[in-house]
Amino acid sequence: xxxxxxxxxxxxxxxxxxxxxxxxxxxxxxxxxxxxxxxxxxxxxxxxxxxxxxxxxxxxxxxxxxxxxxxxxxxxxxxxxxxxxxxxxxxxxxxxxxxxxxxxxxxxxxxxxxxxxxxxxxxxxxxxxxxxxxxxxxxxxxxxxxxxxxxxxxxxxxxxxxxxxxxxxxxxxxxxxxxxxxxxxxxxxxxxxxxxxxxxxxxxxxxxxxxxxxxxxxxxxxxxxxxxxxxxxxxxxxxxxxxxxxxxxxxxxxxxxxxxxxxxxxxxxxxxxxxxxxxxxxxxxxxxxxxxxxxxxxxxxxxxxxxxxxxxxxxxxxxxxxxxxxxxxxxxxxxxxxxxxxxxxxxxxxxxxxxxxxxxxxxxxxxxxxxxxxxxxxxxxxxxxxxxxxxxxxxxxxxxxxxxxxxxxxxxxxxxxxxxxxxxxxxxxxxxxxxxxxxxxxxxxxxxxxxxxxxxxxxxxxxxxxxxxxxxxxxxxxxxxxxxxxxxxxxxxxxxxxxxxxxxxxxxxxxxxxxxxxxxxxxxxxxxxxxxxxxxxxxxxxxxxxxxxxxxxxxxxxxxxxxxxxxxxxxxxxxxxxxxxxxxxxxxxxxxxxxxxxxxxxxxxxxxxxxxxxxxxxxxxxxxxxxxxxxxxxxxxxxxxxxxxxxxxxxxxxxxxxxxxxxxxxxxxxxxxxxxxxxxxxxxxxxxxxxxxxxxxxxxxxxxxxxxxxxxxxxxxxxxxxxxxxxxxxx
Length: 731
Hints:
The protein is α+β, with helices and mostly antiparallel strands. The chain is 50% helix and 18% strand.
């Protein structure tokens, strides 16, 4: 079975996507098909000829193409507002029919005012109605024929023809015109929202300057970014968008990373630093080594993640979709009963009512018009995608509507310490060997202490924990990083430490609790370690085979904005907790400084999971924020897992439901506020949609509304919930 992706066009609402999905699934050879309204993508599993697929999609009034054949232009390149909508109307064949029909209606109105015979005026009304009705009726009939279902196009066709049958010529023509223009307005509005994520394509240049030849004698060659390979060197001139993910080989500049990470301040870049595709170079020229192919660079991964998030329906959206599946048929049945029961059983007029009243057929036709579920169906997804897209522009990747809704409901936030609440780059503050002859001597004056550091560095150079980086930095500074060869058979002791063989000796670097359980050492050493930990320092002990050689202390500073972030979370009514594998004294010192009240220290990865599960049971929903491999189980156990994208490990980013692309916690309160705002918009839209439907159903049942007013209210409601939902994209 083969998998294909196609681009579907001319979808005005989420119901259109459902129709295409059902119609394609009925084709022989199709195993499954899924159409996402906002991305406009059809994901198909099976084997079916493209011509057959195209015929089916076009029969349902839509277009189909391969994604590679479609390259959307940025929204800024086309006008918006009334001018943009007018161009949209002129560009579509269906709306051209509607405009032509509207022109005929205007002629008929003018003829009526001029005193033309009413029969001739009515004929013009019918001509205008039929002109605009043709594409609508054809789509409705094909929907019934293919999907065995009454769609809104067929309902509108029945309502318009029924209005003509009972002599309401002008109303029949207006229903068709207002419906066609309303559908086009919904499609235009949704198209503008859909293009907001597609605009990310414009962040990266289509070409790059590749350098060929020896260093110092390079030649510049402009090539498509798709032609670049990992290891190629490119020149990034000042003020241009960086075309590829890469690593700076030479040059110094500041880079605006806001399009990717949301950081408002440019970041200094020098040789060795990483660059993201789509970011903007500052005043310096850079020579960059390409580290990822064009199809797998940062901006492409963001686009893929956001498009995947669009296709993941939120819980509220799934509920509404299920409701809409029976809502329309139910209203159709109700309309049929309204049209037949009063005339048959109570002698009420069918379509020849007394003056000033409406017959029951007219009332049933009005109910058919109101049966359109577009406003209800689109009320949730337009809000979800607007919020997800807005978050992505600020450097927060939310992997689905379900995660956005859950983020808006969390009552507690658990945060890892190292690398999340702290900078994550601790520095070595003290090295003390047990056999040090001068305990008060500085690190570089004691041979035993520097040898202890060299042994620890030989093991830690094979790991990637922030503490390991600090040890290596100290070893390099003390010029002992190469004293011993890199350790062999390195084994990570989850939450406890690391060990490996150095010159046939088993060297272990680990926490104080682990050494208390596994290694015999002097009580005075324990007292010294506890004293350092009481000062908020992290300690690691070093053993050579079974002999404890000494300890190394490190200090990790809190992030500059950590205190402000915790204060904002508390203002939002959220409980906060710190989860860390570090010792209780070090954790308590950091917690006191930044304002976290609940601290859980000396936790193994499995114990972090237990604490997260306790928070979930206590508060109902709880989020976990972390960046390391040891945080991955806790991220998965939380109601919402949030990874620090800038410094986070690939495992944490993959497991998390939300990624903060910048190495910046300040995005967290903003993301929670956005999620809460989106949930409020969803509730508003659902209540408005239900309320207006109910009011007009009652008005139609009482004969107190007209067909054209019902369709105008329905179109207006769909537009209102769309615009209201799009507010999430501007918050």
